[in-house]
Amino acid sequence: MKMTSEPLTVSRLVALFKDLLEENFVEVLVEGEISNFTRPASGHGYFSLKDERGQLRCVIFRSHARLLRFNPENGTQVICRGRASVYTQRGELQLIVEKIEPLGIGGLQLAFEQLKQKLAAEGLFAAERKQDLPEYPQTIGIVTSATGAAIHDILTVLRRRATGIKVLLRAVRVQGEGAAAEIAAAIADLNRDGSADVLIVGRGGGSLEDLWAFNEEIVARAIDASKLPVVAAVGHEVDFSIADLVADLRAPTPTSAAELVVRSREELERHCDQLLSRLGRVLHSRLELMQSRLTALQRRLVSPLETWRERRRQLLELQQRLQRAMIWCQQQRQNHLQQWAEQLDALSPLRVLGRGYALARLQPAGTPLRAVSQVKVGDQISLQLHQGRLDAQVSRIVREKKAKET
After folding, report:
1. Are residues 258 and 157 in contact, defined by beta-carbon separation less than 8 angstroms?
2. Which of 239, 263, 287 is the last residue of a domain?
3. pLDDT tens readout for residues 168-202
4. CATH number for position 158
5. Are strands 166-171 and 77-87 parallel, antiparallel or unpaired?
6. Domain membership flag for residue 341
7. pTM (predicted TM-score)
């Protein structure tokens, strides 16, 4: 550029510098260490790249920042791809960054480690958060691609190992932009539906980029929030994803996921045979115990007829005893009566009369006579003899002389 006699304004000179840089440095790769990284509410990222001798102001706009797989952190050695420019308001050289890659480790791997540390600190991988799988699920929810090998392998295993299992497929994209959001939405949808007993979430093998949807935080949060047990089956056995760590159970492959969720028909038959054998032994033991109790009760149990016969026998025995007692009492009373009669007879006046005595009574009153002073000559008296009675008239009274006192 030739020197002019007219002076340039600051803004004009800065604009010339900007045009010069943008025309000659359309795309550059710059290596350095991130420092002073900030991301305000606008979503843009502002930081500096520095080395031992200098530093460069950088900006990554929101449209490119949201595509980053990891979170840029201060002190990270990176390679930035972008274009050189000048910030005209300050006349500062800056690098407008379009992509950032960590040095020594890929951006995806760094993002994986960062999210893994974050979720581990929150306890999402803790064993106590894991749910047990149902032993005999009737309905299995599957979140995967409808056209991939994973769904084919899962259905093949289910047909071979079990019958009558219902499958609810929520077809989603398993890689590419927006795949993680679809997977998370499908998990939430199956939880709201509530028909499934367990979920299988996964896909077949692929590169780290192909499997990346299962390393997204949105998928990890959806699995953690699931009320249904989740089996993660992402890639092949050597592949490990964030979804595997958060899930209630990790399966090395989609095929093994189906094998873990449902038991084989042969295994169920063996289990049923064992249960039937145990049930038979228990029933046999119970029957023997009940038979023993029944026998004991039969021995103690007396039929109503037998009870009636026993009561009748007891009643007859009591009647006989009563009759014997009554006869004995009657005989005793008769004996007593006889004794009393004999005693009365011994004291009876008639017995005295039988020995020649007579009972005199003054008539007509019938007053017994004990002394001659009770009568006078001419009174009518009656004499009761042992046999019969005499009526007489007093013609003479003889009074006995009293014995002289000595």
Report:
1. yes
2. 263
3. 999 999 998 899 999 999 999 999 999 999 999 99
4. 3.40.50.261
5. unpaired
6. no
7. 0.52
